[in-house]
Every structure is written in C-alpha cells, then in structure tokens.
Amino acid sequence: MNILIAGDIVGGPGRLAFAAVAGRMKQAGQVDFVIGNAENAAGGRGITMPLAEALFAAGADALTLGDHVWDQREIVKALDREPRLVRPANYAPTCPGRGWSTFETPLGKVTVMSLQGRTFMPPSDCPFRAADAILQRGSADLGKIIVVDMHAEATSEKIAMGRYLDGRVSVVVGTHTHVQTADDAILPKGTAYLTDLGMTGPKDSVLGRDVGAVLKKFLTGMPQQFEVATGDVRFEGLLVTVDEKTGFATKVKRIQEKIS
Which of 129, 160, 189, 207 could form a disulfide with 166 if both were Cys (CB 3.0 to 4.6 A apart)? Predict the structure, then answer.
C-alpha cells in the first residue's frame, strides 16, 4: 500500500497545493491512502467542516489535527460525527472527537492515530501512554497498517515517539513545526519515520504567515494580524510504501513539490 501524508496544510494556498498534488497522485493510482494534517487549513487557525469536506473531495481519506483544533468553534460538534477528522488522542477523555480512526480499504484496514507532544505545547496527557492504550485494543479495532501523526514542537520528543513505537506501528511522522526535516528513514524494527513532514502552503513566509507582520511582532512585541502568505506555494510530505501483510514499511520518500 502506498500512503501519502501531507505536512501542515496552511490556509487557501495550502488547500490548493494539497488538491493539486494529492488529487493528481490519487487519480493516477500512485497512492492508495491519503492523510493530511489540517489544523491550519482555515486561514492558518483550525478547520471548518466545509473546508474539511473540500479536502476530502480533493483526495484526503483522513485529516489529523493538533493544538489549533478548537480555534473554529463550529468544528467542535462535527468532531463527534466525522470519523475522518482525528484530533490528538491524549486530550482529556471528555473532549469531543476521537484520537484514532480505522478505515476499510481494498488493501485492508488502516488506522490513523493523532498524538500531541507536551514540550513547549499546551497541556495534555502523556502521548506515550495514550499510544499504548490504543495499541492494546488489538486487531479487532485496529488495522494491520497504523499511521501516527506526532504533533509536537520538540524534535527530541518526536524522535523518542518514533523509537518508542518502532515495530508496533507502520509509520510515525511529526507535524507542527512546518519545516521539513531530512531524516526520513525506516527504523530498525520496520517503522517508517520522519521528524517533520514540513508545510503544505506558502514557503515565502514565516511558517506560512506574512513575513512583514511576523517581523514586526518580533521587533516590537506588539500584537499583529498574521495573514496567510501567498508566495512560493509547495506541497511537502512523505510517501510511504507499506507491506499490507506485515504492516511494516518497505520504502519512504520525502516529497517537496512547488505549485506556484
């Protein structure tokens, strides 16, 4: 099975880039399952259900979320009824939504799990224990292929999660920092890994936002309106080939494609 995973989709430019690349690859039969981190899809802050539906129509089979999940109030009720939206599993048990979902595909079941780091991030429960609790559910609930989005600031925390889950899941990828790393690998026990997928959106920016506004914030300390930038739009992510019989990765390839 070929799985395409897109780094943080930022605003309108990111949505267009996602549709251009993921849509083309899926229609061409180059990928069997598509995941995107969409917590920045709505103007860089959160996601709405209409935007989620547009990303699903563009080729996404599942969308993971992160610390901006609550930024658009209207999405809160949708999280309980839409299994394709996966927020971090290590949030409080009473939070709306789900931290993992399993999907039926022609090549077998795929489970998508979201976790959020705790270093330099908003408070949350332990992501390592949350992952353990999900994996203990067994084959009745989980697919042979399991993809984990570790939404975290610290590279050390992402690497630690990759090593912790090596041999227990198919893929561990990091999101949140919007800068693609160059450490794509298959770990010793068969799990595909990348510390950060990067950003699907405008690279002529500061993490997807207008450069001038961000610089003014750093120089003055005064509040600024961070509009989504528009230049040098790219798709960034990872293409992973997984043996559907074993659930282990056989090939990884970083993707960075310029759209405009």
Answer: 189
Residue 233 sits at φ, ψ, to 5 deg, of -80, 130
- What type of residue sits at position 46? G
Question: Quick one: pLDDT band at residue 138, thresholds 50, 70, 90?
Answer: confident
d(C-alpha 213, C-alpha 175), whole Å: 23
Distance, in Å, from the CA atom of 12 to the CA atom of 105, rounded to the nearest integer, reads 29
The fold for domain 2-258 equals Purple Acid Phosphatase; chain A, domain 2 (3.60.21)
Contact 35, 8 (CB under 8 A): no
The distance in angstroms from the start CA to the end CA of the chain is 30
Report the C-alpha gap between 24 and 45 in whole angstroms.
26
Q: How far apart are CA 44 and CA 41, in angstroms?
A: 6
Tokens 């690279």 belong to residue: 203
Alpha-carbon span 9 to 3, nearest angstrom: 17
Rounded CA-CA distance 223/216 in Å is 9
Q: pLDDT-based confidence at 25, cuts 50/70/90?
A: very high
pTM over 0.90? The answer is yes
Task: Retrieve residue 51's tokens.
Answer: 């935007």
